[in-house]
What does this fold into?
Amino acid sequence: MKIYSPHFYLAFFLLLNIFNFVDRNLLIAFAPQIKADFNLTNVEWGLLTGVYFLFFYSVFGIFMGVLGDKFSRMKIAAAGVFLWSLMTAFTGIAKNFSHLIVARALIGVGESALTPNSISMLSDVYDQSKRGTASAIYYLGIPLGVGFGMLIAAYFGPMVGWRTVFISLGIIGMILGVITYFLIEPIRGKLDHSIQNDHKIMSIREIISLTKSTLYKSKSLTFVIVGSIFLHIPLGAGNFEVLWAVNERGFSSSEYNSLFGIFFILGGSVGAILGGVLSDKLSHYFKGGVMSFLTISYLILTPLTISYRFVEPDTFIFYFTLFFISLNVTFFYGPVFASVQALTPVKIRSTMVAIFILGVNIIGMGVGSFVTGYLVDYVFNNSSAPYTYSLITIGATGIISIICFYISGYSYKKDTHIVVNS
It folds into this structure.
């Protein structure tokens, strides 16, 4: 069976991930228009962009991961691409809040199929020394998807309206889903030369049992996941970014979408590549491996990102910190996903990535989005800058992730050695 080159798989999965984040974040880019059209409160907006999407995305991600470890990962990913694209188009014809909820929930179901299976397949075409970089390039989908989504909203929104933008992108995505269905899947576990790679397909019960056992035995993996959850709480608060800029920093929706889109493409791309490449190159110099690298990195990045909320938008420091806000969002993806793969046996990698996604989205981004809306409406609602105070409060929770990564480093090398020799 002919297998495509590793770079083809990486480039194609990157393309799908770009569409993933364009479709996911279009709602946020059009926040002022959609919030006004449907007369939504901040709590409703937080639920729509956070909980309603993330619950289905994360819970169904477990099923998609287990199915990917048992059946064809490529075909499962293809079905997911087609479904989320169909629902993106449906968003464009939504008539009420209930329609938006259904669309967001099913977009979550569709998108849940992509990353667990893509990351698993990339580990079949790149060896361990290159997986951090490969994961980082795959996660360029975040800055490129979010950035292009905001630029699309800024330039095409005023021309054709937000509904036409959703419908058009949905149709393009459905075509990509059909193409994905006919691609050849790489050989599972081909580059993991250990006795665990015996090509025996496990039952669903065996997959669940091995997953539970791995989480129980690997202290390092547990703290990687917990640290990543706390790192995602401020990311969930990002659903209010455009509303913050329009209501408290004097930008128009189009102005900020254009500015943030450009900066997110630049800073987010630098962050994704830098995080992956540096972790692959430098992690072996630290006793705690990748986790020590992340601990040091976020001790440097965190003060820069928090300061962004305090500075005025007409200063150089505002743009300087905006670049690092963008870099910060994607910096950890390469190192963290490479670590999850290194700490997980070959046969349950799709499932473990899905569990990771469940935690960081429902507990991390879901909590961040809902609590930010609650703080704006009920805690800081009488203050002069409710969005600013709410975003600073939520952003501070990311400090806990640094502590978790530091603790994870103590057993990281021992736990990865156990997986390699299991």
